[in-house]
Amino acid sequence: MPWSNQNGGGGGPWGGGGGNNQGPRGGGNPPDLEELIRRGQDKLQSLFGGGGGGGSGGGGAAGAGNSKLIAIIVGIALVVFWLTQAIYTVQPDERGVELVFGKPKDEISQPGLHLVLWPFETVEVATIVEREMTSGGNSRNGTTDGLMLTGDQNIVDVEFKILYSVNDPMPFLFNVTRPEDTLRQVAESAMREIVGRRPAQDIFRDNREAIAVEVQQTIQRVMDSFPSGIVINAVSIEDAAPPREVADAFDEVQRAEQDEDRFVEEANQYANQKLGQARGQGAQVKEEASAYKDRVVNEATGEAQRFLSVYGEYAKAPEVTRKRLYLETMEKVLKGSDKVIIGQEGGNGVVPYLPLPEIQKNAGGQN
């Protein structure tokens, strides 16, 4: 051996003799690797109950002990490997479905630690939290996924988002091969169908919310027909624009439409202003006519009442009443006119001509 005592002593590798015999820590030759392995195996055999004999009779026992040790180590490794395959964890945002020989069980694995009899049983896990999917709106990057034909033969580039979650992991995992890809295709098809039935103005600004609601209902109806286990929580149209090749022309059309709307609004305001003024004037004329009518009717009613009262007096004393009416009438007629009194010829001392206006002037001048 390399570590043999060179001075003829019978010491072992750890310096078990006298004289100059030294172990590996005492400055002598290093111990043999095979001897170290054998000593380690002997110690392991003693720990597991195996006996270690010396000489030629101990070689067979050592081989049997080695085989037992290897079997134990392999067994432990297999158990550890089986446990890593059989034990699985379901997170709070996940649900699991166990399979027996590839056939899913009816039970759904809730969040926590679970055990299956691998390899006879396996598990599939699905995420159930709400997720977002964006579709369309890529024509500016060179693709045509978002280009759609509207009901009035216009082309629009639509970008929209879908918020969805998994409410049933069983059909989500086993009914549809690629549920996310299927959802994307169904969403694009539903959006094209709804946009194709409406004018471009609806998708640009007038009726986006109603279109999004209709698309959501259509997607949900199609996904439920599989079924897929997917619930569509919301659909939102993020952007709708014309293709970049005609963007400038479309902007001009939009500006023209905005000017048209502005002119129409101004015309409506002017019409409402003039209509209000005309209605006010009409109401004023109507009120004046109503007041005139009431005044004339009241005056006529008063005259009729006065005539009736005079007729009553006339019926009682016709001659007196006739004379009074004559005098009152003559008073009204002669009251504002110039008066001249001319007497009969040959009167007894009466001045034949009496200019009363001149007399009244003179009287007024003297006063």
Automatic annotation (TrEMBL):
Residues 7-29 have a biased composition (Gly residues). GO terms for cellular component: membrane. Residues 1-35 are annotated as: Disordered. GO terms for molecular function: peptidase activity. It holds the Pfam family Band_7. Coiled coil: none annotated. The keyword Ribonucleoprotein does not apply. It comes from the Bacteria. It is a single-pass membrane protein. GO terms for biological process: proteolysis. The chain crosses the membrane at residues 69-88. Keywords: Hydrolase, Membrane, Protease, Transmembrane, Transmembrane helix. Residues 85-254 form the Band domain. SUPFAM superfamilies: Band 7/SPFH domain. It is found in: Membrane. HflC and HflK could encode or regulate a protease. PANTHER family: MODULATOR OF FTSH PROTEASE HFLK (PTHR43327:SF2), STOMATIN-LIKE PROTEIN 2, MITOCHONDRIAL (PTHR43327). Belongs to the band 7/mec-2 family. HflK subfamily. HflC and HflK may interact to form a multimeric complex. This is Protein HflK. It comes from Hoeflea marina.
